[in-house]
Q: What sequence folds into this?
């Protein structure tokens, strides 16, 4: 399977390319007051509001550092009923693509209820790469709030 490889700090992660809609440059976002710190805001995508998550803030509690290779990954995120919604994910540094076979992946052996979206790992070029389980990225309450808020701002 093919994955987009990106960095959050020194750590490497992978996102399945079939979940990826587009890779966008970092752009100005409208803040969402009183949202969790990892909700970076809303971007204007061809006139439609799209919620954006700062993956660094979600995973490590610190905001991303804007670099030349920082991108917004536009993904199709499923809601509770399985309907897909656009969601932006700020990746601190996009590195490229990798082909990873299922037999190259291993369970981490660590249960982290605070980060259920962290999936299997593989070693590439002597470095670990951890997969992101996209449907588990957002807590249900945040997911439902973001997509209702985005739909409301369109109306």
A:
């Amino acid at each position: 399977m093919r994955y987009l490889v990106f960095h959050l700090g020194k750590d490497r992660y992978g996102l399945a390319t079939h979940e990826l809609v587009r890779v966008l440059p970092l752009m100005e976002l409208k803040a969402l007051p009183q949202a969790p710190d990892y909700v970076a805001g809303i971007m204007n995508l061809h006139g439609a509001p799209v919620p954006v998550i700062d993956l660094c803030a979600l995973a490590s509690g610190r905001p991303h550092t804007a670099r030349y290779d920082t991108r917004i990954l536009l993904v199709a995120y499923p809601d509770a009923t399985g309907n897909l919604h656009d969601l932006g994910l700020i990746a601190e540094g996009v590195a490229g693509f990798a082909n990873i076979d299922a037999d190259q992946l291993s369970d981490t052996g660590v249960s982290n209820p605070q980060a259920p979206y962290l999936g299997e790992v593989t070693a590439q070029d002597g470095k670990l790469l951890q997969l992101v389980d996209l449907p588990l990225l957002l807590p249900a309450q945040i997911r439902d709030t973001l997509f209702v808020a985005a739909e409301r701002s369109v109306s």
